[in-house]
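hey so u asked for the seq, here:
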Amino acid sequence: MNAAFSTRALTITATEAVAAALAAGLALTFGLPIWAMFLGWNAYFTRGSGWKHGAVNLGCVLIGVCLGMGAECALETLSTEPGFAEQIASVFAVTWVVLSLRFLPKLNNVPGFFLGLIAYFASRFEPGWTAFATLAGAAVLGTAAGCLTSAAQSRWLGVGNVSVAEAQRRTANAASV
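ran it, structure tokens below
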């Protein structure tokens, strides 16, 4: 427990909080939803870290947003007032597509796809370029914040993309020295 309040742990946490506050400020400035920015941040850490993995993770989120918009368009063409059966069929089809994408060689981040779907359906936006631009902008901002936080931790604090248990072990070891 003492390791959680060590100078090192508090510095790491402060770095993350400052990055979150700056990203939220930028989101507000550009009229982007803060919650969608945090989905982008979360996506950054779903599989590896660094610019290369972050770009792949972001790409999967954006594909997920597009899949969500496509599903809604398909659902609307099936019925003007989709009922239970149409909605279940839509979820089945989208899930089938997302889970099939896991077999792609590079863009195979299932959590990223689902984060994109969540972003689209939670936004309640009408399908279209405005919805995509808004959610993509927020996801890019969140991914950039996650990447910058990870890079700062790696460079200045000596921690990178490590598990929580490993970070706690390193912090405890540093505090005991």
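The chain has one domain: 2-176. Residues 2-176 form one domain.
lmk if thats what u needed
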